[in-house]
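Predict the 3D structure for this chain.
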Amino acid sequence: MDRRQFLVRAAAVLGALITPAFVRDAQAFARAEGAPLLLPPAVRANRTLIAVPMHRGYSLHIGTPFEPMPMWTWRELAEERGCWGVDEVLEFIAEHNDGLNKRERRALLDEPADDWLVAECWDESYASTTLAFNYLDELDLGPAFGESRHARGTLHFIESYGPGDNTRVVEAADALTLSLLQARLVELGEATELVIERS
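Done. Predicted structure below.
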């Protein structure tokens, strides 16, 4: 797990939004409203980052949170999703279906793929938490947790909850962290709007 924070800069720093005054305002807003203070994107948003409240903090998503895993055929898994190559799929089918000739194995390409392989591909490349993880992981959000005494908030970048799990998720510790995340996205010129999912 990787943890990151947001650097609080002096108001005199050109383009700085995460200043001591903003942190105070965001903390006061969170206490009063129970929600983050979210700045609008500086440019027209073309991406939505969704924060879903959890028992503690928020999970971050791009796309429909907790969208059910699709049912893919072996062909979709290989050709459209790019998780496996066609030759790899045919080799897997041959290993798990003794006695089939080459034509029969090819016919199985249009049958539903094994759920666990679809789940692995989905978790690694297409889940809404993975899309948010990959997007945020590429950005210069701030220092690693504890590297600067001038940093606030906590984002947890989680690459698995345990053995055999391919989950990738970013969790924001609290409303202040979401306020700082949106402000940092604005500082970076990202066309991303952070919204809170209401249940």
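Residues 54 and 171 are 9 Å apart (CA to CA).
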